[in-house]
Design goal:
- By secondary structure, the protein is an all-alpha fold.
- The chain has one domain.
- It has five helices and two strands; from the N terminus they run E-E-H-H-H-H-H.
- A two-stranded antiparallel ribbon has the order 1-2.
- A hairpin with a 4-residue loop joins strand 1 and strand 2.
- The radius of gyration is 17 Å and the shape is globular.
Length: 149
Amino acid sequence: MTGHNPASGKSMNTTGRESLVAAFAYWAVVFAAGFILGTLRVLALAPVFGEVASVALEIPVMLAVSWIASRGICRRLNVPARLAARFVMGGVAFALLITAELTLSVYAFGQAAGAWAGSLGTPAGLLGLAGQVGFGLIPAVQAALRPEI
């Protein structure tokens, strides 16, 4: 990703770095919020409402957090409102999220990697995965809906 982007006056290499730095910041903010909300979900909501319902309650909150975090990070780090830059940001953040979730499952909770992957096929797992895909797409959706963000 080298060259010059006449629209922004920045080199394409700089734009790529901005997207990567933004991806890490976006992942870190949303992962921290998810860790807190996930703990609340498991300890307080799931015993009362069940696993699927508690995940369904958590997803809109996490997507709202993701939306706000993405908007703020993109503004603060000047990530261009180009779909390519935003897909890089969201895709890398999604990859970090899945990697962190797998790592925690294996090393913190003693779950086999195959068991973790299999859990994604359960109703609660599929709902959670859909929310995570939404998290990954939010930066690009924001650029498509409001290019000034």
